[in-house]
Amino acid sequence: MNFWLFKSEPDAWSWDQQVARGDLGEEWTGVRNYQARNNMRAMKVGDRGFFYHSNIGKEIVGLVEVIRGVAQDSTTDDPRWDCVVIKALKPVSRPVSLDECKVVPGLENMALVKNTRLSVQPVTEAEWRIICGLAGV
Question: What is the pLDDT of residues 61-78, one digit of tens each?
Answer without folding.
Answer: 999 999 999 999 999 999
